[in-house]
Amino acid sequence: MQSLGTLKKNAAVLAAVALWIPMVGFGIRTLWQYAGTPGRAATPPAVWPAHTLARPAPGRAFLIIFAHPQCPCSRATIGELAWVMARCREKVEVGVWFYAPAQEPGNWWKTELWRSAAAIPGVRVFEDRDGIEARRFGASTSGQVLLYDSGGHLVFNGGITALRGHSGDNDGRNAIVSLVHGEIPMRQATPVFGCSLSREE
Question: Structure pTM?
Answer without folding.
Answer: 0.80
